[in-house]
Write a structure and sequence with these properties.
The chain starts with a helix and ends with a helix. With 129 residues, the chain is mainly α.
């Protein structure tokens, strides 16, 4: 199971980071960032499979691909912003982390406006005059 590999690597890295942190805190931080990025890269294949499956489902349901692509971009922004915010929090930069989270939320809202507009227009068309 892949989760066991990920958890094992994360626990080993945590243990090593705690040991190294007293002597070389910069190296411990770099170790944590490297392991975090490695875990993310390990999951890229799974993410690709999920995206291709969603595209197949959308095509079979005759959903406009623009909407699916927008939703996938929104999900991507959320994950990337969360990852970056947690890395900056680990570095002790909570103020920057909160700005990253705010930027992610604003970008998500900006990308969601066209979808919200279509939903509102559809609901308005369904209401009898």
């Amino acid at each position: 199971m892949e989760i066991l590999k990920i958890v094992g690597i994360a626990l080993i890295a945590t243990f090593l980071a705690l040991l190294v942190k007293e002597q070389k805190p910069n190296f411990a931080f770099l170790l944590v960032v490297f392991v975090g990025c490695s875990i993310f890269l390990f999951l890229v294949g799974q993410i690709q499979e999920i995206i291709s499956m969603l595209k197949k489902i959308a095509e079979s349901a005759n959903v406009n691909m623009v909407y699916l692509e927008t939703i996938l971009k929104i999900i991507g922004i959320a994950y990337i912003a969360e990852f970056a915010a947690q890395v900056t929090k680990d570095a002790g930069q909570g103020a920057i982390a909160s700005k990253i989270e705010l930027a992610g939320k604003i970008l998500i809202l900006a990308m969601a406006i066209p979808i919200l507009t279509v939903i509102i227009e559809t609901v308005i068309k369904m209401i009898p005059s």
